[in-house]
Amino acid sequence: MDLGILATILDSALRLSIPLLAACLAGLWSERSGVVDIGLEGKMLVAAAAAAAAAYAFGSAWVGLLFGILASIAFALIHGFASISQRGNQIVSGVAINMLAAGLTAIVGNAWYGQGGRTPPLEGDQRFGDFVFGHSVLVYVTLLAVPVTWFVLGRTRFGLRLRAVGENPAAVDTAGISVAGLRYSAVVIGGILCGIGGTYLSVAQAAGFLPNMTAGRGFIALAALIFAKWRAWPALGACFLFGLLDAIANQLQGFSLPGIGEIPVQAIQALPYLMTVILLAGVIGKAIPPRAAGVPYVKER
Amino acid sequence: MTLPMPSSRGNRNQSGVRQGTMPMTITKFGLALAGLAFSATAAFAQQAAFKPAIVYDLGGKFDKSFNEGVYTGAEKFKKDTGTEYRDFEPQNDAQREQALRRFARDGFSPIVAVGFSQETALKKVAEEFPNTKFAIIDAVVEKPNVQSVVFKEHEGSFLVGLLAAKASKSGKVGFVGGMDIPLIRKFACGYVQGVKYANKDAEVFQNMTGTTGAAWNDPVKGGELAKGQISRGADVVYHAAGGTGIGVMRATVDAGKLGIGVDSNQNGLHPGKMLTSMVKRVDVATYNAFDQAKKNTFKAGVSVLGLAEDGVAWALDDNNKSLITADMKAAADKAAADIKSGAIKVHDYMSDSKCPM
C or N: which end of chain A has fewer Cβ atoms within 10 Å? Predict the structure, then answer.
């Protein structure tokens, strides 16, 4: 394999890992504050749809990004309302978000454009073009979110309190800080990140929205989050690894390995999933989630 | 309706309720039976009625490709004859059979099933409704009330392969398929033969998007596959991938390379940047099925449409005429004539699941 192909694979891996990374960081914020977020997939999907529709209507990718983020925040707030204010089951709420997003985007898209839920193709300014090194600006925004997440969660008062809420909300409450307020802010930050990820899918990587175009990326992001043990820099590594496996799977199709011959397509396409299982089961050791994750906070009288 | 119901709350005792419920259940059951019998007679009565319907494949009506070809044919029929038709776009595999049965039960005929993946569903439903006329595109269902239309995609793909090889400057061309199934391998195999016919030393990169139905609807992955092929030197990329192909074509023309469309004429997708399209006349197949049913000339059986029957072709229109040189056109026309006469034999992958190239 020569250097050119290596560069191609790395390039492709970066593009493929960005939506994963955005969703993974969103999950990180949310779960660090104690709100389990299964709905990453749904939020990305609704953001992708809203972004493509807005970009098409207003002729600007940036407006698309704004609407993508707003739509994702709206869904995040539904999740927040159900699981923080109403103290509902966070898994159920997240699954509901996913189903709602899958159905709603297809139906509204079909009603507006009459093209089976698809938005019309986006052209020119309606898309994010290349910014630097052949990647769109959203790639760098998402990458930048990694050190920001690391710094805010690890070095600032807000971040430390937010993490404390995910470990021991009662202690934070005793100190006179609002548990619900902190959790809501974490969920909204997660919404913004999912919005960026979804927008990247439909407005930068592809040119328009298609029903179910997230294709399970939100769930792979959850796997990456566990793999990264809920930390920002390892999350970058995990997402890039999954992106890399995907890219290798794409490139290796039809490649002949010396001695083995051509590898069957199916074997290569199973590779990312196989690696996920192996990594999760054997390599990373024990992954301990934030202690209060998934537990609604009830103030004791 | 007079049912022995308890007249008031006061006299409702245990036995009274029971007496009241039993006859009601029986009446309901009887009504349901009568309803069944009625719908059965209705199906017989309506066998001559002409009510066309279509069940699309997962790619959806507006995939700008295979399904949209069917849609075009049906719309043309509607315009020509003023006959309305109903259609259904399944969202998952289980819905196909339901949709077919639903249309058949409601007295629709002919019902066009689009795509190879409806084969098993149609087999069952066609048996249940022997008086309904069915047509299936891209698969063969041998039932006395089913018209099966299949195409010689390998012949059309051969021609676009030949054009791709002539247009390529690098001597490397690409193919992106949708779901990895024999039908798509048939496209690929015909394409490779065409490329090698024009240029023995040419290299063809082949990729399949996936192994499930989702592979027809993943433009992001399609785009990545195309980018991968282009980075390996391909400068013409042919797709047979339904909705995924939109992403393939986008990535190809964004990189300044030439795309080749499939099924419908996709030259207009990116005018001046699409070399050609391998047109499969599913629109004609649909139109004919409707038309024959209307004129009572509907025949069950298998029709195989190739170059000779104008079932497949390569598209030449205003959008791509600047890309097709006189030499290319002459070569393609000659090859087409040779295929029709049998001088060139294009191998059909599905005949032995092998591609000799």
Answer: C
- CA gap A188, A178 in Å, rounded: 16
B153-280+321-351: which CATH architecture? Answer: 3-Layer(aba) Sandwich (3.40)
Average pLDDT, chain A: 84
Rounded average pLDDT over B67-85: 89
Q: Which residues contact residue B8 at a Cβ distance below 8 angstroms, ignoring those fewer than 6 apart?
A: none
Per CATH, domain B47-151 is 3.40.630.30: no
- Give the 3-state DSSP-derived string for A202-246, with helices as H, strands as E and coil as C: HHHHCCCCCCCCCCCHHHHHHHHHHHCCCCHHHHHHHHHHHHHHH
pLDDT reported for residue A2: 64
Residue B261, phi then psi, degrees to nearest 5: -85, 180
This prediction's pTM: 0.77
Query: Is the Cα torsion angle A103, B269, B188, B288 positive or negative in sign?
Result: positive
Q: Do B224 and A250 touch (CB under 8 A)?
A: yes
User: Which residues of chain B make contact with A207, given a CB cutoff of 8 A?
Assistant: 219, 246-247, 250
Cβ(B158)–Cβ(B338) below 8 Å: no
The number of residues in chain A equals 301
Token code pair at residue A63: 């407006």
Q: Which ranges in chain B are annotated with CATH 3.40.50.2300?
A: 47-151, 153-280+321-351
Q: For residue A284, what pLDDT band results from cuts at 50, 70 and 90?
A: low
The answer to whether the Cβ–Cβ distance between A205 and B220 falls below 8 Å is yes
Average pLDDT over residues A248-269: 68
Phi then psi for residue A36, to 5 deg, are -70, 135
Whether B48 shows a pLDDT value over 70: the answer reads: no
Give yes or no for a contact between A23 and A46, defined as CB atoms under 8 angstroms apart.
no
Give backbone dihedrals phi and psi of A119, rounded to 5 degrees, phi first: -90, 160
Give the pLDDT confidence of A65-87 residue by residue, as tens digits: 999 999 999 999 999 999 888 88
Selecting from A201, A251, A269 the residue whose C-beta is nearest the C-beta of B220 gives: A201
**Contact of B161 with B195, CB cutoff 8 Å:** yes
Nearest CA-CA partner of A159 in A169, A146, A150: A150
The full length of chain B comes to 357
Give the integer Cα–Cα distance in Å for B131 and B43.
Answer: 8
Chain Cα centroid distance, residue B132 = 20
8 A C-beta contact, residue B261 and residue B240: no
Closest approach of B301 to chain A, Cα-based (Å): 32
Instruction: Tell me the pLDDT of chain B averaged across its residues.
Output: 82
ipTM greater than cut 0.85: no
DSSP conformation letters of B51-109: B-EEE--TT-TTSSSHHHHHHHHHHHHHHHH----EEE--SSTHHHHHHHHHHHHTT-B
Please state, as a whole number, how many other Cβ atoms lie within 10 Å of the Cβ of residue A65: 26
User: DSSP for B307-339?
Assistant: TTTTSEEE--STTTTTTS-HHHHHHHHHHHHHH
A37-70 pLDDT per residue, tens:
888 999 999 999 999 999 888 888 899 899 999 9
Q: Which residues of A touch B207 (CB under 8 A)?
A: 250, 253-254
3-state helix, strand, coil in chain A (%, to 5): 70, 0, 25
Question: Mutating which of A44, A251, A263, A273 best tests the B interface, going by the most B Cβ atoms within 10 A?
Answer: A251
Cα gap A28→A225, rounded to integer Å: 7
Q: Which amino acid is at A94?
A: G
